[in-house]
Amino acid sequence: MHFHRYEKYWLIFGLCTLVVFLTIVGVNAFSGGHQPPTGMMTLDPTKVDQTPPFDQPGLKKVDDNTYEANLIAMAFGYNPSKIEVPVGAKVIFNVTSKDVVHSFTIPGTNVNMMITPGHVNTSEFSFDKPGSYLVLCNEYCGSGHHMMQMTIEVK
Ligand code: CUA
């Protein structure tokens, strides 16, 4: 087979570019300990009720201005279905699912997590305004999906 000289150069140039590109993508994807931001903690989804902190779901005070909300998502609701948090406090949401994929979404905030069984999904938020905040499920999870919600009372 006969290549024109420039054709050969461009072919080599193209191959080199591809190698450089794949190397950059590969190095970025797998180096530096990159991990998804949540879902690093795992648990047995069939034993959620026996696994701390989900054996005692609800709000737990960590320090003066920090709370942990350990919540269980399931078809079709959250346990507990209502929590009360102080205005301005930092709330760390730890949410897991007992069955299928759900979401934990607080409209109007940046809290929007996919809740996957077998994982503890974590997000933080401080409610600066008092009020009643609705938490919704954004992932279709079955016949009762549209009714799946809980309330956060901020006082
Ligand atoms: Cu849970 Cu949709």
UniProtKB/TrEMBL annotation:
Principal place of residence: other
InterPro entries (UniProt xref): Ba3_CcO_II_C, CcO_II-like_C, Copper_CuA, Cupredoxin, NosZ/Cyto_c_oxidase_sub2
Keyword annotations from UniProtKB, A to Z: Copper, Metal-binding
Gene3D superfamilies from the UniProt entry: Cupredoxins - blue copper proteins, Rhodopsin 7-helix transmembrane proteins
Sequence ranges assigned to domain Cytochrome oxidase subunit II copper A binding in this UniProt record: 64-155
Catalytic activity: 4 Fe(II)-[cytochrome c] + O2 + 8 H(+)(in) = 4 Fe(III)-[cytochrome c] + 2 H2O + 4 H(+)(out)
Pfam family, any one: COX2
Cell compartment(s), UniProt: Cell envelope
Physiological role: Subunits I and II form the functional core of the enzyme complex. Electrons originating in cytochrome c are transferred via heme a and Cu(A) to the binuclear center formed by heme a3 and Cu(B).
Record-given protein name: Cytochrome aa3 subunit 2
Organism expressing this protein natively: Ammoniphilus resinae
